[in-house]
Amino acid sequence: MSETKLTGDTFELYCDVVGNPTPEIQWWYAEINRADSFKQLWDGARKRRVSINTAYGVNRVSVLGITRLTLEDSGTYECRASNDPKRNDLRQNPATTWIRAQATISVLQSEWSMSCST
């Protein structure tokens, strides 16, 4: 779900997928108005503010968390899931082997941080 947060806040996004074999999950990010420039996120990115926790079982659940939000964290976050054995083959078109779900996070300047900086 898309959300609006304040600077300094935390958010979590959940991705729950089912498939046989169990799908791989990846998290990606694109800046606002830059949907053509997705970059993959990893655990510990953005000065250790990004955490990615994945649980395995009959289905796979992955949670993306980002702490101490900044204005630069605004954008589109995408969960990609695939169990296609050729999903990472660079000769294949990845659009045909990944299922995608997106949420937009808008980060606004908090009043508290504005009053502290003046």
UniProtKB/TrEMBL annotation:
**What keywords tag this UniProt record?**
Disulfide bond, Repeat
Q: Which PROSITE patterns match?
A: IG_LIKE (PS50835)
Give the matching InterPro entries.
Answer: Ig-like_dom, Ig-like_dom_sf, Ig-like_fold, Ig_sub, Ig_sub2
Q: Which domain of life is it from?
A: Eukaryota
UniProt keyword annotation of Signal present: no
Per the record, a Pfam family? Ig_3
**Domain Ig-like residues, every copy:** 1-106
Q: Which GO terms describe its cellular component?
A: membrane
GO terms under biological process: cell-cell adhesion
Whether Repeat counts among this entry's keywords is yes
Q: Which residues form a coiled coil?
A: none
Q: What is this protein called?
A: Ig-like domain-containing protein
Organism listed in the record: Dissostichus mawsoni (Antarctic cod)
